[in-house]
Amino acid sequence: MEEYKDLRSELLAKRGEIYANQLTMSVGEVMNLYESKEINLEPAFQRLFRWNTQQETNFVESILLGYPIPAIFVLQREDGIWDVIDGVQRLSTICHFSGILRDIEKGEERMAPLKLESAKILTKLQGKYFMSENSNECLDTSTRIDFKRSTFPVIVLKHGSEKNSKYELFKRLNTGGSHLSPQEIRNALILMYNENVYNKMDNFCKDENFKTLLSLSDNKLELRMDMDILTRFIVMRNYENIENVQNTIEINEFLDDAINEIISKETYDIDNDLYVFSELISFLQSNIDEEYGFKVYSETGGKFKGAFNWFIFETVIWGLTVINNISVVNSKKDEIINKIKKLKGTGQYQQSKSLSNLKVIQRLKEAKIEAEEVFNLNA
């Protein structure tokens, strides 16, 4: 890694790696670029961040009313093609409405054109297409021209030699002030890094046993906490020497880098990880509770209560899928059931160790220490 004598020299060097040029382009120009494949709507972003028809209608209405359109960010590749980093939903809507949007699930085949729903201000937009053989169903010629001549800023970015510049820029542009959760952003990165791994992870999250075990609320599912849990499971099983990770590192930064490192290896076997997690789920549901959800056990009520507890989850994963083989776990059922019932939640553990305000990385390390002590099945 290159050393810099001071902040200024580092700043100038790093700033020189990124080139940005702001253009003003019309809707019609962007439509032409899309049709000639000179602009690429990243399939990963299209797949994960789709607008519904009402959202698309609202955006078309905004364009027709002349409202300012937020800047679109694109990354220029070496071959000159623009990859859209921020603004996929807006550009997808423009292409969908104009009838040129390609269906990412069907290759070159075009999607059916967007039929607008009711709009808040332009009430006559309902049921309209951009073009149609029936003149009563489409925009009139003047309005179509107005739509195509509407302009918006396009920020063209070029990044020096950064191998993963597209992913890094996507994170930067969608972190802070974004409606996306950290895991939603991470999902896009996983999908871009390794589509096969993403598809298998996403399908696993749809498994009824997995869903029942976690029993997450609709809000948590919308934020993709299920994928967050699965991602952490994979990281815990495959990331080496977590003891060497600094406690001050932000957990989402760590997870982004760790999952990328893991799934980028040719030797990584997602099927084995999912098999192990599936076996663990089967064990927990058969012997603990179908809706165990990694909760704290209440001696008073004789049941697991409260919400999903990260420290218990981490202790169980370390103990039953990393420190011990899942086959060993199945052979010592009664012993493990008793140990799980005695596990402390985050607050209880901190109090017992006279700790406070544990950083997430530090908590992960503490959970591993606890698991090594509690789930020492040879003791």
What does this structure look like?
This is GmrSD restriction endonucleases N-terminal domain-containing protein. It holds the Pfam family GmrSD_N. The longest helix is centred in the last third of the chain and has 18 residues, at 270-287. It is built from 19 helices and seven strands. The chain is elongated. The two termini are 45 Å apart. Helix 8 (182-193) runs parallel beside helix 13 and helix 12 packs across helix 13. It has two domains: 7-172, no CATH class; 177-374, no CATH class. It has 379 residues and is of the alpha/beta class. Helix content is 52%, strand content 9%. The strands form two sheets. It has a five-stranded mixed β-sheet. A two-stranded antiparallel ribbon has the order 6-7.
Please render the helix and strand layout as text.
Elements: H1 7-15, E1 18-26, H2 27-35, E2 39-40, H3 43-48, H4 53-64, E3 72-76, E4 82-86, H5 88-98, H6 141-149, E5 151-159, H7 165-173, H8 182-193, H9 195-205, H10 208-214, H11 218-222, H12 225-238, H13 251-263, H14 270-287, E6 296-298, E7 303-305, H15 310-323, H16 326-331, H17 333-341, H18 346-352, H19 360-374
Parallel strand pairs: 2-4, 3-5
Antiparallel strand pairs: 1-5, 3-4, 6-7
Helix pairs in contact: 2-5, 4-5, 8-9, 8-13, 12-13, 15-19
Organism: Clostridium scatologenes
Domain GmrSD restriction endonucleases N-terminal: 32-190
Protein name: GmrSD restriction endonucleases N-terminal domain-containing protein
